[in-house]
Predict the structure of Mechanosensitive ion channel.
Amino acid sequence: MMNELLTGILSALSEKVVFQNVLYTSVLVAVIVLARWIALRFLRRRLKDRVSFRHWKLNTGYLAALVFVMIALPLWLPSLQGIAAIIGIFGAGILIVNKEILMNISGWFYVVVRKPFEVGNRIGILDLYGDVIDIRLMDFTIIETAHPKLGGQSTGRVVHIPNSALLTQPLSNASKEFAFNWNEIRVPVTLKSDWQKALAIIESIASEKLERISVDDERLKRSEDLYLIKFNRVRPIVYVEYRGGAVLLTIRHLCEPKNRRILTDQIWREILLRFATENDIYLHEHFSSGE
């Protein structure tokens, strides 16, 4: 079989066939490059966002390369049988050697088809958190942020993650399917405090500082249409419980993931200022939630 394959390839490399294949390949390259150029000019006029245009520019490049290979390969091999024979002989070795590369490409197809995230989304994977800034054939790039419990502020580090991780690791997206995250701010006061007065103060602060989100908000409706994510109560609420020797007042509210640190800062500043004017409200200095 190998001898027949080599004989077929040599016969295909005759001078006439080579000239025809070179001519056809050159025309093919010119057509593909021209079609991509026209498509990019059209997209440049339609897309105002530079990030979206860059995303399309990369994807059209991958598509152009794939089309070229699919059309040009049969021209330079004597028949599809030759292709099948080569794949059968070398396929297993190629799969073993290039396993990670093939998984990365598969991960890229997963991103293109399933769209688990887009550029600009805040995601979490492999114990890393960050905002997606680029998606490529072999990997995607995030600008790292701290853990959400630590504020979610940017660390300034750029992290490249192989696409293969998407096929084996859980992925969280904090800003695509559901535009909001639930945030909780815990305020512990001592048993000697007038916790009812503290509760009233905190409810007043939450009403003043937090965004008023209704069940008719378009961002919530979009989430409901996509994944049936629906909440009966979306207004801020303050829960009361006794834990760790303190009366724990917990503000629970919806916020956009990138505003979480700012809102927490504003609310705590106001709480400290208001409590400082009261003689019967004391923060618990040694509170531990036990988590």
